Structures are given as structure tokens and as C-alpha cells.
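Section 5.1 Outputs to date
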Amino acid sequence: MKGERSRNPHGPLREKRDDTHIATIERKYDKDFRVRGDMHLDTLLEKRGYNSLNDLLHKENKKR
């Protein structure tokens, strides 16, 4: 399945900014991470033990 994130000139997905609000990500990917919308991505990744937005999206999806 093709993702919605853009790629850098060399092909790999570009990294999402760590200061992105979770509400923005929840709206874009139609997810509910059950945290405050003004929490930053880096904070949620640290709390849940993930290294990237990709890990968060795929592993949290498998939990539900």
C-alpha cells in the first residue's frame, strides 16, 4: 500500500518533524492515539517506545 508521506530525493520517506502535534497526525491518518491533541510526536514516541511515526502507525494498528 502506498503511503501518504513524501519521499526525499534518494527514495526513503522523509522524517516527520518531532514537534508536530498529535491532533494533526490523528486527522491525517484517521487514528485516535488516546492522548491530548497538543502533545508533540516526539513525546508520544518516547512514551510508547517507538523510533518513528511509521512504527507508531503500524504497531498501534496491530494492537487494536
